[in-house]
Design brief:
Length: 235
């Protein structure tokens, strides 16, 4: 491997990862009002490649990439969607109104179970948040439809030492939890469809990455509130 970034180094003795995974799932429908999908999984990583925070002779923060140790990642992923009107009135004929709620939840526990690096055993695996939740609702009346979705991601770490702060370079450290709201509305009639959407409705301030190189080094901030308007023509 070749790098040209002064804040990152690579272990010259880097070796291949080895491991195995297993999963068990269940999916199905209940009448015409519920759809669900649930799966359990386990991932055993040997010789997992990751990054740790270290320092050079000038006491500068460096990001060292190499074989961190053995990691075990366990989790459950689930999805469900409920047609609320059909749930309340299962025998009624479909009308002009529609109302549905949906959710996607992932609960993950990733920990290093063995490592020769001091202070790593028992730490959270980097870039593996414990909670990843997406939930929302859709409503419609004839040609009009609207939806809102909330996304929540719990805190995560960018290196195996679970460093909270990375100094002035900010290339390592904790990535805080955040919540984002998105909304959209649409209208469709024969050959014309108009749709408007707002991303990051609450104008939340957050970040998801700590970059070592361009456009970093440092955190990459999120986009603020943004608006989109789309017109589609079918023929």
């Amino acid at each position: 491997m070749r790098i040209a970034n002064p804040s990152a180094v690579i272990d010259p003795n880097l070796q291949d990862e080895r491991g195995f995974s297993a999963d068990l799932g269940l999916r199905g429908e209940q009448g015409q009002w519920l759809t669900y999908d649930v799966s359990l999984f386990a991932l055993q990583y040997g010789n997992r490649i990751g990054e740790v925070q270290t320092y050079d002779a000038a006491d500068r923060v460096l990001r060292r990439r190499g074989n961190i140790g053995r990691a075990l990642i366990l989790g459950v992923e689930s999805y469900a969607e409920v047609d609320l009107l059909r749930a309340l009135r299962p025998t009624a004929e479909p009308g002009r109104w529609s109302l549905a709620s949906f959710g996607n939840l992932a609960l993950i526990r990733g920990r290093y179970t063995q490592s020769e690096i001091t202070g790593v055993k028992g730490n959270q695996v980097e870039f593996v948040p414990a909670v990843n939740l997406k939930a929302g609702a859709r409503v419609g009346y004839g040609p009009f439809k609207g939806s809102v979705q909330a996304t929540y991601l719990s805190k995560q770490y960018s290196d195996a030492t679970n460093a909270e702060l990375g100094g002035v370079s900010a290339v390592v450290g904790r990535i805080p939890a955040y919540t984002v709201l998105d909304a959209s509305v649409s209208w469709e009639r024969r050959w014309l469809k108009l749709e408007g959407s707002v991303n990051n409705l609450a104008n939340a301030v957050y970040f998801t990455r700590r970059a070592t190189g361009y456009p970093g080094p440092g955190i990459l901030p999120s986009d603020g509130r943004s608006f989109f308007l789309t017109a589609a023509v079918k023929w």
